[in-house]
Design goal:
With about 200 residues, this protein is of the alpha/beta class. It has helices spanning about 10-20, 45-60, 95-105, 175-180, 180-195, and strands spanning about 5, 25-30, 65-75, 115-125, 135-145, 160. It has one domain: Maf protein (Alpha-Beta Complex). It has 5 helices and 6 strands, in the order βαβαβαβββαα. It has a 6-stranded mixed sheet with strand order 2-1-3-4-5-6. The structure holds inosinic acid (IMP). Inosinic acid binds near residues 86, 87, 153 and 181.
Length: about 200
Amino acid sequence: MKPRLLFATGNAGKLRELRVLVGDAVEVVSLKDLPPVPEPEEDGDTFQANAVKKARAYSEATGLPALADDSGLCVDALDGRPGVLSARYAPGDDRARYEKLLAELAGVPDAKRTASFRCALALVTGRGDPEPRVEVGRCEGTILHAPKGTNGFGYDPVFQVEGEGGRSMAELAPEEKARVSHRARAFQLMRRHLLAL
Ligand code: IMP
């Protein structure tokens, strides 16, 4: 029988990406397919710690192997902020958050605007798994002076992707983002652990 895996996300895009990655080998269910489970607080200092905490909590609650992710944007000139607080960096919407970022970086020259999107994925194979598998993916770039592009979400309009002809993440087609993103890279690294379930 195929192994069943809970991917602890309510995000349809992330679920689709994972299903493409594991193909027929694993039956992937999401939080929407299960009775409600209390959501653990993302209060870790690192993406890895948050991903492991989530995967553990959901595996504990359901008895299924669980995969969880945590991601965000780390800006070098801000000593890695907003980092694990990316989703909560400013109240309001995505635009309010990237505008706050542009304001904090006002006057910072291009050479010092380097940044990376990072994603940690954690796999807990069942209740009491002593050694979760953790993989981290990064996507390097720089923070623009003004937003451009309409694809994606979050900080995509202000993040210029390294090696993509000066385009922002929000100017990449979804298929292109799915090849170069921090999440795509972490998924690729996690693939072998998932196929061994
Ligand atoms: P989460 O890990 O899905 O909760 O994402 C945390 C936050 O990091 C999001 O709310 C976004 O602000 C930011 N973030 C994560 N991944 C991306 C991305 O691919 N593009 C833009 N922003 C992202």
